[in-house]
Description:
By secondary structure, chain A is α/β, with parallel strands linked by helices. Chain A has 13 helices and 14 strands. Chain A has helices at residues 14-24, 35-54, 68-79, 93-96, 115-122, 144-153, 173-176, 201-206, 227-237, 243-259, 285-294, 314-318, 339-359; strands at residues 2-3, 62-65, 84-88, 103-105, 127-132, 157-161, 180-184, 195-199, 263-264, 275-279, 297-298, 303-304, 310-311, 328-332. Chain B folds into three domains: 2-189, Rossmann fold, CATH 3.40.50.620; 217-273, SH3 type barrels; 278-349, Translation factors (Elongation Factor Tu (Ef-tu), domain 3), CATH 2.40.30. Chain B has helices at 11-22, 37-40, 51-63, 73-89, 96-115, 157-161, 173-182, 204-211; strands at 2-6, 26-33, 67-71, 120-122, 127-132, 135-140, 163-164, 219-222, 228-232, 251-252, 255-263, 268-273, 278-288, 295-300, 308-315, 318-327, 334-339, 342-349. The A-B interface holds A 283, 286-287, 290-291, 293-294, 305-312, 355-356, 359 and B 28, 33, 47-49, 53-54, 57, 66-71, 111-112, 114-117.
Amino acid sequence: MIYLDANATEPLRPSAREALLAALAVTGNPSSVHAAGRQARRMVEAARESLAARFGARPADLVFTSGGTEADALALYGLGAGRRVILGATEHDALRAAAPDATVLPVDRHGRADLDRLAALLAQGPALVCLMHANNETGVLHPIAEAAAICRRHGALLHVDAVQTAGRIGTSLAALGADSLAISSHKLGGPAGAGALLLTEAAAAALAPLIRGGGQERGRRGGTPPVAIIAGFAAAAEAPLEADRLAALRDRAEQAAIAAGAVPVAVEAARLPNTTALSLPGVAAQTQVIALDLAGICVSAGAACSSGKVTSSHVLEAMGLGPRAGETIRVSLAWNTAAADIAAFAAAYATLAGRLRRAA
Amino acid sequence: MRIVVAMSGGVDSSTVAGLLAEQGHDVIGVTLQLYDHGAAIARKGACCAGQDIHDARRVADHLGIPHYVIDAEARFRAAVMQDFADSYARGETPVPCVRCNQSVKFTDLLALTADLGASHMATGHYVQRIDGPDGAELHRAVDPARDQSWFLFATTRAQLGRSLFPLGAMPDKATVRAHAERLGIQVAAKPDSQDICFVPSGSYADVVAKLRPDAAAAGEIVNEDGAVLARHDGIARYTVGQAKRLGTATHDGATRRIVLALDPQTRRVVVGPRRDGTATLRLREMNWLVPPATLRCTVKLRAREEPHPATVTPDGAGALVTLDTPALPAPGQACVMYDGARVLGGGFILG
């Protein structure tokens, strides 16, 4: 099996597995006063310090959550009171479903936020703007630093979903100039089950909790934290970036697909190094995904519902791709993808394109 | 042999997948998402997929076969649900299962079967495909109580040639359930599905009203002379031969009235005493499974009724049917021709 669906979840990094297993052997609730509690708390706080340093926040302003979806929800509900919510048109459902009445900020044909439009919207009153650093389906990067400057000028808050960039390219709350940043453990090679919301000092002070519970995380997120998963999360985040190596492999996969008849999406935009979205004209995306799966290659298309049904992509539709939106698959390389994996993908893709385009 | 199995999540298609996998075939399970289940049961926040889709996935996992859910909602809405509502608006009584078989299953799913490099598609239908001297033939199921051949009359010979119906030869449903038990299929005891799949609440008139409000508009119930006897709340609630829902028009003295005709233009339901019916009817959209020719055969005008002896003559894309004994055909229903157990073809009854 060749796994090219890292944007869904990354394989567990060996360093994360080691930290996870070591921490699983430790008994203790970080809230307890005794030695066992202190031992657990030490692990959580070490992870907090390491992750905060890596992603540009003070440790005191990092809130552990159950994952990226909860981190997004915490930013939305915790910072959004009294503000109009503005969502990029290509945001993840973690935000779209949580803010159905939000104002939608359009994107250009490359999938990048329309900043002129943003400025116009912000002139209308206080807002919370949510933009993802990189899109999960296309890998396209929003101009976050520019958007942050516009938000600052208008007194708006900016929440950035950095779930796809964390661990792949440099991403930092401070460097981007955002007010909050969501990251997720399993998207950077850690175990699933933890995420974090990083905030500026001012945003952290203003944050209202979603879950009060026992007052953990300084009252910002109740519930006993999953100590071992958090330890694995922090260990995974320490891995060096492999952007150049992955970009070279991604380009090779993309060139092979183009030679077989594919049209890649948004190649002119700045993108994640590991991601390409490939349209195969006339061939339904779900057919491509199934045919590749039967050939032993794991890729994805659109957004999969919990039933497994693949729906057409709101991201590609927002980019104005028309029928191509239903004919596009996502290939996303994992931290451990090797040249041989790309060669196998290229061969399988050429076979499927030859058969399906003839049939179409 | 690579075979795509259309899995509904019920015991029949699950057993088909299990039997074919047991025989060593390279089985691929596919479940069609036909409509938004959450919207259909009108519960906010409910999943778009019903329990059946989850059941199909669990069965496929148990059998160790790959399984995919195909989004066929747009196609199903256009080819089946809209046709269903339009048919009622024309004063007909449609058969959505035939439309679904014609479009989503035996056209689209067979195309996917070819795309995935599979030679055949298997379904849980109770019919038999028998290979005769001129290719694949469609025959009634061995178990007459389960036979679904009436619903599959529109399957073309080319489609039949690429289809497998392993349950058609089963002596009865108990045998199928026994196979399911033996294969460890969890849904072995699941009850049979009922009625029309996209009307889970049972109120098909509500579905029609949403798609074709005109078919749900109030109108008059009149006798054959045009005298108004009562009011109705939509011709979609009536079918020729029906005796219910006639209100104050139910009886004419001691005689019980039934629906004789539906007029979509005037939105009138015409009622009167039960008649002998008609001996001749015209069919549209004929599908011939034998070379078209005038032939003596039996025909079934409804899914569950005894066959009528008849003579059928081709007429362009349609046909003329002369029944030996008059009957009450309902426009929009299918008229399916049989020679004993073999299906010769069929068409839709014209009003």
